[in-house]
Design a protein that fits this description.
The chain is mainly α and about 220 residues long. The protein contains 8 helices and no strands. Helix 3 packs antiparallel against helix 4 and helix 6 packs parallel to helix 8. The chain is globular and about 60 Å long.
């Protein structure tokens, strides 16, 4: 399988797994919901939470393949910064899924206070994840800002918008409720949408770059 085809398969797999996990979770509790609400949600949706953990596990493999291929298209040190950001992205997603899965393991005996405390840890996945996304986005976007840009203008503009939004989104660290709460709509809707849009654009550019790369010669 060529690298281009592998890239596309990895991206499609990651996207499908992300969608399945998101649909499974539906509308989980927010940062301002009560302890009883959080405990009750995991009692009623424990299978959904474990499904999310399962999709996140396979998503790790798919995203790692994607990141490794893209990294090979970037010059140093940008490639190293991108890979470190991608690795942090994977680790943070894994920890969050780990917490969700743990909360769903024995929902019948889950203490509401404990559930609320552990769930708060999982919610801060959203604010802290912005560091890893900025590393990935920034490593690629700066390649379009020089006198001889190596990525197209449209990807540079898209990356700049996504990077600025992610930088602003760090204020969710201090949020307590509503749009700017940790794990709220700024993280899960606005930030996620722009980051996914940038990743889609990065995939288009990477697939095109791989398509234009010289093909190895076969012996006659």
């Amino acid at each position: 399988m060529t690298q281009r085809r592998t890239l596309i398969v990895a991206v499609v797999a990651a996207g499908v797994l992300y969608l399945v996990g998101a649909v499974a979770l539906g509308s989980p509790p927010g940062a301002s919901d009560s302890e009883a609400t959080v405990g009750g949600w995991f009692a009623d949706h424990h299978d959904a939470a474990r499904t999310y953990a399962w999709t996140a596990t396979f998503g790790t493999l798919a995203f790692a393949v994607f990141a490794a291929i893209v990294r090979g298209l970037l010059p140093a040190p940008h490639s190293s910064v991108f890979l470190l950001g991608a690795a942090a992205f994977i680790v943070e997603n894994s920890i969050q899924a780990w917490v969700w899965g743990g909360l769903a393991l024995n929902p019948g005996s889950l203490d509401p206070t404990t559930a609320r405390a552990l769930y708060d840890v999982a919610l801060f996945w959203g604010p802290v994840l912005t560091g890893s996304t900025m590393a990935m986005i920034g490593a690629v976007t700066v390649l379009g800002l020089g006198a001889r840009p190596s990525i197209p203008r449209w990807l540079t503009v898209l990356g700049a918008i996504a990077f600025i939004e992610q930088a602003v989104e760090t204020i969710t660290v201090f949020g307590t409720g509503g749009f700017m709460a940790p794990g709220g709509d700024m993280n899960l809707i606005l930030g996620a949408a722009l980051t996914l849009l940038w990743l889609a654009g990065l995939t288009v550019w990477a697939a095109g770059s791989l398509n234009r790369a010289p093909q190895p010669q076969t012996a006659g």
